[in-house]
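Hey, can you fold this one?
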Amino acid sequence: MSIERHTAGLLQQIARQEAIVEIAPQGSTPKAAALAHVAEQYGYTYGIAYRTGFKNSLVQVRMYRDPRPEARVREAATITAHPQAGNGGTVPGLERGSLKPLPEAVGAVAVLKDLITFDVMALYVADRSQKVMGYLACAALTVLLLIDKSPVEAVASGGAVALLFTVAFNVGAIRRRQIAQRLTAAGFCAVRDEQGTQRFLRPGQQLPGHANPFAA
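Sure. Predicted structure:
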């Protein structure tokens, strides 16, 4: 899908004053962050991001219409400043005909990229039971290899697979922790949703769809 169709599709959802708009730019987190920034200028706020589609190849971002008065003021100002957005005119925060953020929007888009990445990575952060299953699989592999290989070769092969598991687990956790630090430094608050998954919200923001006892 072309950049113009991505942008036009988003703006059509916004024009219908929908409570929720969905952004799915073919798996690209930077593109999703740029479009999410556009939605924010029209009075929406970031909700959640996750992977979907064939082999989880698609990044889906859900934006919620912000009920606060300041969001309506922001929306009105954006409509006035960009009357032809979606019809070949300028789009708030982006270079014309591109999803590249303008200099003044780079910081905001980077924050949205962190929010999206943090939520998407939740799918790949292994919990304790997943780690146990992974290492049990390595042990089972070692036992199977003992049938055809020497004990040294079997243990070495199983150990190599276990090492790969360990590196994968740790790299994902370290990267997510770094993103969490950046979001905290940017003023976001860490909370837990109903499934116990860690999320980040702006001060005073609530998790979409229900009262959030963790909101600041």
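The helical segments are 3-15, 29-41, 69-81, 106-121, 128-148, 151-185. Let me know if you want another pass with a different chain boundary.
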